[in-house]
Amino acid sequence: MTMTANLSIAAVNGAAPPRARVVGVSGVCKTYRTKRGTVTALSDLSFDIADGEFVTVVGPSGCGKSTILKIIAGLMPPTTGTVEVFGDTVTEPRADAGMVFQSPRLLKWRTVLDNVLLPIEILGLPRAKHVPAAMELLELAGVHEFAGMRPGELSGGMQQRVAICRALVHDPRLLLMDEPFGALDALSRDVMNVELMRIWNERRKTTVLITHSIQEAIFLADRVLVMGGRPGTVVAEVPVDLPRPRHPSIRSTPAFQRLSIDIHRLLGVEYA
Length: 272
Hints:
Layout: H1 3-12, E1 21-34, E2 37-50, E3 54-58, H2 65-73, E4 80-85, E5 88-89, E6 97-100, H3 112-116, H4 118-122, H5 127-140, H6 156-168, E7 174-178, H7 186-203, E8 206-210, H8 214-220, E9 223-227, E10 234-239, H9 254-266
Parallel strand pairs: 3-8, 3-9, 6-7, 7-8
Antiparallel strand pairs: 1-2, 1-4, 4-5, 9-10
Helix pairs in contact: 8-9
């Protein structure tokens, strides 16, 4: 049976057609050479991410969560295995991916607006043409009033909002986020979770976010990938069937709590 026929049957039955694959990770292993020998960070790691999907990744410290994100971004190669993004094997940094790191990494001598426009300059795109888009993103993130200020004049949460705008300014098709709110206090982190969800609802970028927070992982995701200890591999994929948009109060619902308990158990944490 052809793909067209399958899609037609899905439409007749009322089922949504499958979304295209954006990220395909297949049999990825990553080893490092150290003074004490070889360390295996990732082993036989495989998963797919669909177009427009928001996927979060949780796992113990040192299991290779950040490593796989860097491999997807093309910032480092796998030792074995393959990673495809939009059907192309990843061999170098990709212009169609935006990256948000654990710290904002803003240049302190540049204004907020100039920091957001940095990828435009690196890619050799016309700056003037992208200023309106940068200002629109800053407004969407609620920091447009600070466009002319330096990063040191902003709080940590506001700096991370600017970093998200910088990752989106060249309109990437894929957004990769490495523990972006880990350094924030609990209240600021909750606020940033809501803000990120609002921005994602507006832009619908395919997103992969690394986090140590199970609550954050559930609150943001369509699906949670749970990784085991080093060498890291995916031990479970947990779908998050909760309605969007999500209010922070959803964390107190039985459905959210069940997901939290399930993921804790997958990570080897049992409740008394």
